[in-house]
Amino acid sequence: MRRQIVYIARVELEGRCTGCRLCELICSMTHTGAFNPDKARIRVVSFDGGIDIPTTCNQCGLCLGRCPINLIKLDTKTGSITIDEDKCTGCGVCIEWCPIGAISLNPETSKAQKCDLCGGSPECVKYCPSKVLHMLETSSPRSIEFRRKIYAATLAGNEQLLRDYKYGDSAIQSLIKVSSKAGGKC
Amino acid sequence: MLIKGGYAGKILRVDLSTDKVKVEDLKEDFASKYVGGRGFGSIILFKELEPEIDPLDPRNLIIVTPGALTGTAAPAASRTTITFKSPLSNLHGDSASSGLFGANLKYSGYDSLIISGKASTPVYIYIEDDKVEVRDAKRLWGRTAGDTHKFLRDELNIPDLSTLTIGQAGEKLVRYASVITDGGAGVHARCGVGAVFGSKNLKAIAARGHRDLHLADPDMFRKTFQEYLNVIAVDPYVPPAKKYGTPRFIYHRAKFGIHGAENWQFGAYEWSGVDPELLRSDYSIKAASCPNCPIMCRREFAIRSGRFSGTVSKMEWESIARAITCGVTDAEAIIYQTRLANMYGIDAESVGDTIAFAMECYQKGLLTPQDTGGLELKFKDPDVMIELTRRIALREGIGDLLAEGTLRAAAKIGKGAERFAMQIKGVEMSAGDPRGMPVRAVSYATGTRGADHLRSNPYIEEIATPQEAKEWFGSEEASDIKSGVKGKGRLVKWSEDFVTIGDLLGLCKFAYYRSATFEYLRRKGIEIATRLYNSVTGLNISGEDMMRAGERVFNVEKAFNTREGASRKDDTIPARFFEEPLLGGGPSGGAVVDRDKFQTILDEYYESRGWDVSTGLPRLGRLRELGLEEVAMDLSKRISLKD
Predict the structure, then answer these.
(1) Contacts (Cβ under 8 Å, ≥6 apart) of A70
(2) Is the predicted pLDDT of residue A186 greater than 50, yes or no?
(3) Where are the domains of chain B?
(4) Architecture of the domain made up of B246-421
(5) Which end of chain B is more exposed for a tag (fewer CB within 10 A), N or C?
(6) Architecture, CATH, for domain B438-638
(7) Distance (Å, rounded) from C-alpha B2 to C-alpha B476?
(8) Is A52 part of any domain?
(9) What are phi and psi for residue B224, nearest 5 degrees?
(10) Which residues pair with B188 in a beta bridge?
């Protein structure tokens, strides 16, 4: 079983992430019993001009085997890559390996935190008001087609966004600014 | 500890004269008595501000208080109230906005931020958990509100930084300057809060919190959240809100013919230029929303071509409505005007009304091209509206006079200009013309922060059945929109207490205090709201307790205004509404507000509030019944009030 949360924007006005950040608070509530975006395993990235993109772990597995004390495992039942948070020392090696910033340190405990798909049925997907968060799953864990589909779905959403924002300009410029900065300190 | 969640537990004080920072514990009985948001702000202002000071004096306070549910995942609960003495009314002033600032204040550990004194040079306040600093803002002075936000965010390199900023209008002490949340995500628009910031040399407050906000009962919270979703899933109010956002209110104004066009002369007006369908198809680029909101009634608008090409802005109904007050119905000009208002940090409502006032003065010959620097102030001219907004925000030429607000500008112009100043207690009109809906006249008049459609919810008359009206307000007449009198006073009182709950909890009035039926309205606004509060805090209070808290807070504000000298004579509406029949034909063409009926409803209102009917002042006994002994004691030392 392979599962992951993806953001898929739809064509209509109401079919994009609105940047309401309910997913962050639901996530921190589910995992810690309190509200604190710093403890959320899904984060919304907002760009000037009104583009909001929720980001979370895509369970790619690049961090598997990177934990020096071997606390990162594939949970075959839920299809998620999980960290044994109780034993985590907070060394931060996995954070450096993650290419998309999906692992962070809990600001209070200094232990690594990442999306565990809530044990197979993610709460953020349930609560998302604009229904742009989805959980996709496949029974063949190594399906290349599956990964391709997810990648394409994300790009399709982005393409829609870019097309719509063409005339708005300031939003797209802020995206370009961010991506050109990305090599630097951003 | 009785309270197990929802509150951060501390109150933060910053004195700008001395740069001193002080942290106090939030007392539990205080928290449960005044709940949060507007409740904390109103009582702190009453207790700590000495009477009769100038609102722009350093002694005025700025009290920033997130709602009790702000910072939690409760649906549409992100509102934060700023309380102060208003430079427009010289009375109680407060102004709320959505956005992430309140949440970050609470994640930093503070339920309220009280700012006093005045900095000698421009400063901003930085708050990150225990780190609270007053920092130099000289290089920010002169920047727009949106630019200030971006500058701070980029300079401090904190992408999630949340801010309250003022633009040039606040710096120049425009009496209706606003405070912008997160560079444009929300606006603390009303009552001139931006001018109070400016008078203290306070350019911005920036906050980023990292602490937990606790939650007492997650299961009950989830259940209540689901209940809220179930209610809005079947409420016919929601689909149009989702589809068009707030611009849909044009349908309501058109249905009753209450546009308030051309400085509140015309009720019916040509509005095809701002048709919600047109806005949706040609200008909306996406549905936006305030934090945690399942309704998503905000819209991001963009202009693709023409001279305003490239403009991107959020825009709400009242910006459109007040452009119509200037006779302008050109969608592109209004989107641009809204962006301008939010960049300069100026209340789109007051500025619209003030421009319309100037236009009428010009029309009637009270202002001449000599006064305006050659600008022809004609109704319907979008360029004049935009240019005047700029001049007012920067206090250039005629803008300097108009920046004082309609009441003060009219006094300076003289020659009977007062007649065209559409304001109540010095605060410019908002929402729809009361001549088509008489109960609104009373609700505007009794609002504790001047002319205001958000202080009460008199539109309940449109959704309550006659049976409900009888049960709740004592007379079937209360649901009769055009000619009902009996029960209307009680309706206004009830709805004032009702919407106050939203300001205490930080709930959005569209998400909780609007609905297509009275039953859904009560379920969302009282039952669900109270249960959310209980699940977060671990308290167990009833809906009646919550309504009583609303009433208590409303009485505190009334007491503040009483101490400042306001009385029944101030609870009135501009003479135009009584005397001049509504122009333009349409559903309310020719209507006026009947003076006798107005006074009768007002009598019933004071009576249901337990106040003195002849003077409109609160009774000490009633204040004590509401648990406001200290307030009653303070008042009785200064003024003689009936028991």
Answers:
(1) none
(2) no
(3) 10-207, 246-421, 438-638
(4) Orthogonal Bundle (1.10)
(5) N
(6) Orthogonal Bundle (1.10)
(7) 43
(8) yes
(9) -70, -35
(10) B179
